[in-house]
Amino acid sequence: MKQPLLQLANLSARIGTGPRAIRPVDDVSFTINKGETFALLGESGCGKSMTALSILRLLPQPHGRISGGQVKLEGTDLTALPEVEMRQVRGRRIAMIFQEPMTSLNPVLTVGDQIGEMLQQHLQMKGTAKLNRVLELLDAVGIPDVKRRYTEYPHQLSGGMKQRVMIAIALAGEPDLLIADEPTTALDVTIQAQVLELLQQLQRDTHMAILLITHDLGIVAGMADRVAVMYAGQLVEEASRDCFFTDARHPYSLRLFESLPNVDKRDHALKTIPGFVPVLDRDFSGCRFAERCEQAWDTCRTQAPSWDITTDHHHVRCHLADRNITPPARTARDDTPLAHATPGTGTGASLLEVRDLKVHFPIHKGVFKRVVGQVYAVDGVSLEIPEGHTQALVGESGCGKTTVGKGILQLLRPTAGSVQFDNTELTQLKGERLRRRRTDFQFIFQDPYSSMNPRMRVGDIVEEGMIAQDIGNSSQQRRQRVDELFVQVGLSPENAHRYPHEFSGGQRQRICIARALAVNPRLIICDEPTSALDISVQAQILNLLKQLQNELGLSYLFITHNLSVVSYLADRVAVMYLGRIVEEGPVASVLEEPLHPYTRVLLSAVPQIDQDTRREIIRLEGDMPSPANPPGGCHFHPRCPDAMPGCRERYPGETGTADHRVHCFLHQ
Amino acid sequence: MIMPVILWTDALIFLLVAIVTGFALYARGKPHLRAPWHHVMCSRLGSMAVVILCAYIIIGLLDSLHYRPAIENSDASAETHYAVEVLSVLDVLVGPLRTRTEKTYSAPFATQLFSRETVQHPDGSQTRKYPRLEYGGRHLENPAADARADILQRSGIALTQTLAAGLAVLLLITLWQARRRQLAFMASLRDILARRTAVPWLIILITLSVLLLLTFLAINLATAYHVLGTDKVGEDVFYQTLKSIRTGLVIGTLTTLIMLPFAIFMGILAGYARGWIDDLIQYLYTTLNSIPGILLIAAAILMLQVYMANHPDAFETTLERADIRLLFLCIILGITSWTGLCRLLRGESLKLREAEYIQAATAFGVRHSKIISRHILPNVMHIVLITVVLDFSGLVLAEAVLSYVGVGVDPTMNSWGNMINSARLEMAREPVVWWSLLAAFLFMFTLVLAANLFSDAVRDAFDPRLRQR
Ligand SMILES: Nc1ncnc2c1ncn2[C@@H]1O[C@H](COP(=O)(O)OP(=O)(O)OP(=O)(O)O)[C@@H](O)[C@H]1O
Ligand code: SF4
Ligand code: SF4
Ligand SMILES: [Mg+2]
Questions:
Q1: What average pLDDT does this structure show over A331-343?
Q2: From ligand 2's centre to the CA of A565, what distance in Å?
């Protein structure tokens, strides 16, 4: 049998000392063969990144260390190598790219220098040989105009470009194994598609193996040869991709599939995984998933399941898969989804009407702060949200989605246009009258942590809005209401005395929702409320939002870049590009029969789990232009696969039906 | 009978103490406020610095309780008169140090004067010799032969006392820890000695023992000798340095207390309001910054001197005069030093203003005043604290420099600056009189070093960027 490239044997790592040390990696074994893509999947806090760092012996110092097991790279045990030799391995044999391209590049060195440095260190290249190789590498990762980019600094590059440069640096040492830790999480779908394609192509050319760490099942389906699911520091399932997607056995894996939102689950509550990943600072007596597992029985709590081989190359760490243990006969699994009314059951009377909204930011330059130009962040957006409905707003980062939300709420004063809320013109409201009116519309931010003052108790945070709006007469009444709200969003009222950092991401987002509900709003603008959360937590939040809509008749403006969330939650969707809406219509028709080329590109770029429905990815050239200097004519023409000569001339007007509007000359 | 005297600076010091105590009580129930302080105490250098600073602060506070003693009056019915001289509790505690003045210079531990004098003998003959000191080593029959043994013996006593006191402290700490952590006494003791406790009690204990040793040495020796010599008019230098502690602390803390409200208010306002208010405040502090600080201070102090010369009866005692000048110095130093903090706070508020939780508060229609007091202020406090602690040692040093230049505290006031200033002439003498300078240097150095170590620990504990690990 040929030797595997990398072999982890019972690897364990510890952070800290004493009995309360964290054990982020506990007895992990897997192998990666040459030229193979191995995906490591799991929620945050399960130890995926720590596994990768242990392989490279880069655990956080001074407290982290490998406490057992071996990492064999073609037979050599890396854990036993002296540090000097380990440095030869890092970058040369195994390279790593990180999630945040922004922070992993040195801001004061040019791109060329940073790649050159690696070449010099690992391949002892110098002079023109080095220069040529750098240019070659930049070219290989698909960076246009390499001669110019060579001398640029990281801040002059967009996020996607930076990630490409990171990949170029990683490739410089011609590694046998590339560890990619969530390489595309910080990127937009279209850019993500580009980067993933690049990785695949590089793998074909160089035959390197990839350890791909991700939480996105879609990416796994598109990229991986083999898949391992990690939970609470251990692998719980490992299988080939096809086997995993057709025959996943572990209850945790199954639940991950079930919590993904999509069109078919629209009328039901999503399945969620209750509870959280346990803190890894203790010994476990039984199955680590038992607390959250629907199928757990007594044996699960007392006896740890072993890393059994069910069939060839399919490992499952669950008693259900163990033939020697018979599970108790189960009462029929409770499969009936929570009854959920179909969305969009409001009265249908228009609640919010946005006409031609514009928000421009002046660009100041020089000592006298002269205005030298404008960022056209939002440039003529019209929307209408009826009572009790959900309008989604999708688009790439930087296209102005958040600015639309803030412009509507008057957190940013619009440059032009009108915002009618229940027949009041908000743009004209000022001072005290606007302050009073704020009780009707609320905002939920993307990052629940940064939207709460870290020095206030969450109870006070929720109460703050009520005090400002004089809701509840006495502090006792308000406290009671806070308790009710906590219950409503599924948290115990005792939590009110704790501080934000003591909660998990999903809990924090629940608190933010409770805070918004505290002032009895009729419209809530949700700015990517789930994009910082894990899949299973996202499902909980989506369920909560849907349930609240049914109970209270709320309207949502749901800002997101996740199209599967849109298909699950929204009634209508608007697609935004560079400050303008390019297509708007009911979810079904926009997502099924997109009219605008940009919508089609977006849809094609979403990684699909289902192999059959996977679409041909329409490759989008380049990055989104700057909103300070939008291209003339149709804003999309420099990147549009269907561009016609006329598209350069002027901006296409609104066409289509009243129900499904689009701005594109293809449909004039 | 005594008459308490509350000087301006005393009042402000007690205000400061009240604020700090109030904050400490408030912070007790708030884990997020308590945590960074715990962190400071857990760092080795930090806890050491805290112990040393506490010693200084205790001396400074004792020296801030002022009173005027009644003049002995044979006629009991007559109304009591009070001495013009204002004393402090410290003066009482150190007792004879204040009153036992020699004729002129004498070296540390000397039993005779530093310079030869012509002595008239009863028989009319004159000799030039080093006369014996009036107080230093008075108890000795034969100073030249016995002094050394006497000093050693007294040091030995001090050492024993220190050992006893140190053991007592260890016992107390261990008992307290054992009760708090519900451990057996021996287990707790072992933890402390093996440095297994979060707070490095062993380090604290060692520092404390060193301080105790110094105290006992002072108690045993300073009563019989001038341990740091005497100055030109025969005053005990050790006493002077002790009295200088208060001056240094006052300058270091009151200056901050005075400038803090301005800096915080203006800085946050500029950052939060932006627009023309921001421009105005920026203009203000840039202008102030571009005037050389020393000029401003010199001008202000000279003006005050002229005013005092013209209104001699406005002040009852010399100490009150000196005190007003000290306060004035604090104010003027405060005016020249608030700009740095103001600028920092403006930057931070500009950033915070865009923070999502501030936006969230705005979206709820929370009033601006509330946003500032509940959201911005608590989140810039760490910057304020770090700056205050960092500034402290700078201000103590500034006092020394200013007094040296002649625009510092009143010449009659004990301060390290004045001691250094007088050392200018002493160093020019032959042989050199070095002890005033050394004493001032030692005390100031220890304080500044401790303050710097403390500020490092505070910065580590409070700066969120350094805390991320
Ligand atoms: N205060 C500001 N001053 C200048 N430009 C700004 C400001 N706020 C946003 N912009 C610019 O406006 C454009 C739209 O930003 P916005 O935050 O609305 O994008 P977004 O679609 O929400 O992106 P993401 O998906 O990353 O959240 C961006 O180019 C951004 O740089
Ligand atoms: S072992 Fe038991 S608790 Fe663990 S996953 Fe399997 S069924 Fe669930
Ligand atoms: S108008 Fe032209 S460039 Fe714009 S999206 Fe339509 S086809 Fe493409
Ligand atoms: Mg955004």
A1: 48
A2: 29
B362 to chain A: which residues are within 8 Å by CB?
A: 411
B302 located within any domain: yes
According to DSSP, residue A94 is labeled E
H or E, element range at A353:
strand A350-365
A464 and B361 within 8 Å at the Cβ level: the answer is: yes
How far is the C-alpha of A249 from the C-alpha of A246, rounded, in Å? 9
Percentage of chain A lying above the pLDDT 70 cut = 94
pLDDT tens profile A544-586: 889 889 888 899 999 988 888 898 889 999 999 988 999 999 9
Pocket test for ligand 3, best of A663, A665, A667 (most atoms within 8 A of CB): A665
Q: Which residues numbered 50-89 in A keep a CB inside 8 Å of some CB on B?
A: 60
Tokens 């002890």, residue?
A: B435
- What does the pLDDT read at residue A348? 67
Cβ-in-10-Å burial (0-12, 13-18, 19+) of A209 comes to buried
Torsion of CA A277, A278, A279, A283, to 10 degrees: -140
Domains identified in chain B, total number: 1
A325 interfacial to chain B (CB closer than 8 Å):
no
Tens digit of pLDDT for each residue in A345-398? Answer: 555 678 899 999 999 988 887 777 778 888 888 888 999 999 889 999 998 877
pLDDT means per 10 residues, chain B with 469 residues, are 85 92 87 82 90 94 88 68 82 83 82 78 79 77 80 91 93 90 84 83 91 90 84 86 91 89 92 89 89 86 88 79 88 87 92 86 87 89 86 87 84 87 82 86 92 88 60
Neighbouring CB atoms inside 10 A of A145's CB total 9
> Chain A: nearest CA to B184, how far in angstroms?
20
Which residue would you say has higher pLDDT here, A16 or A591? A591
Alpha carbon distances (Å) from A417 to A10, A167, A437, A573, A662: 63, 44, 19, 21, 20
Whether residue B63 is contained in a domain is answered as: no
Residue B119's contacts (CB-CB under 8 Å, 6 or more residues apart) are: B126, B127, B128, B129, B131
Atom of ligand 3 nearest to the CA of A644: 2
Structure confidence at residue A336 as a pLDDT band (50, 70, 90): very low
Q: Kindly state whether residue B346 falls inside one of the protein's structural domains.
A: yes
CA distance A252 to A318: 10
CATH number at residue B254: 1.10.3720.10
Residue pair A202/A183 in contact by the 8 Å Cβ criterion? no
* CA nearest to A442 within chain B: B363
Mutate to test the interface with A, among B32, B191, B357, B358 (most CBs of A within 10 A): B357
Q: Do B365 and A469 touch (CB under 8 A)?
A: yes
Residue B288 touches chain A, beta carbons under 8 Å = no
Distance, in Å, from the CA atom of A362 to the CA atom of A376, rounded to the nearest integer, reads 9
A229 touches ligand 2 (CB under 6 Å)? no
Predicted complex ipTM exceeds 0.90 = no
For a pLDDT cut of 90, what percent of chain A falls above it? 15
Chain A touched by B31 (CB under 8 Å): yes
Helix (H, G, I), strand (E, B) or coil at A577: strand
From residue A5, alpha-carbon distances to A35, A97, A332, A611 in Å are: 9, 19, 45, 28
Selected residues 325-344 of chain B with any CB under 8 Å from a CB in chain A: none
Range of the domain at B387: 242-468
Q: Is residue A344 predicted with pLDDT exceeding 60?
A: no
Contact of A439 with chain B, judged by CB distance below 8 Å, is answered with yes
Measured CA to CA in angstroms, residue A561 lies from A185, A216, A402, A665, B406 at distances of: 12, 14, 11, 25, 69
Residue B193 lies in a domain: no
Residues B41/B47, Cβ–Cβ less than 8 Å: yes
